[in-house]
Write a sequence for this structure.
């Protein structure tokens, strides 16, 4: 499994960014795909997840109502639309994949596959 994250950048507070994660290497029909983030000096934390079958989503409280995760089956790609960004959203964002997990899997060790990170910086 290969995951390729992209779309990070520098944005002012209140702005928007869309992250993409292109997945390859197998069929992801029984997978949960997720985004995590890690800010400097902090542990990597769960942000959002989506079930590949059906598209159900689950969000951390800190991003609920601002971030939206979606997927495009034809492109084997998941997205994280981030609106109303805050300086505290600044972090390296990682996409991850887990087979056969429940949607609310939020621990790092529940995910077997990881992409490289993409930096998101929100200026005040």
């Amino acid at each position: 499994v290969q995951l390729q994250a992209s779309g990070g950048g520098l944005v002012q507070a209140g702005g928007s960014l869309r992250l993409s994660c292109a997945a390859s290497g197998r069929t992801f029909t029984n997978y949960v795909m997720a985004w995590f983030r890690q800010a400097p000096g902090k542990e990597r934390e769960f942000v959002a997840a989506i079930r590949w079958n059906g598209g159900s989503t689950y969000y951390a409280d800190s991003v609920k109502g601002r971030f939206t995760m979606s997927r495009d089956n034809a492109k084997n790609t998941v997205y994280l639309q981030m609106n109303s960004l805050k300086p505290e959203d600044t972090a390296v964002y990682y996409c991850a994949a887990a087979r056969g997990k429940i949607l609310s899997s939020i621990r790092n060790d529940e995910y077997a596959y990881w992409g490289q990170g993409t930096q998101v910086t929100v200026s005040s």
About this structure: The first strand starts at residue 2 and ends at 6. The chain is about 0% helix and 50% strand. The CA atoms of residues 16 and 83 lie 4 Å apart.
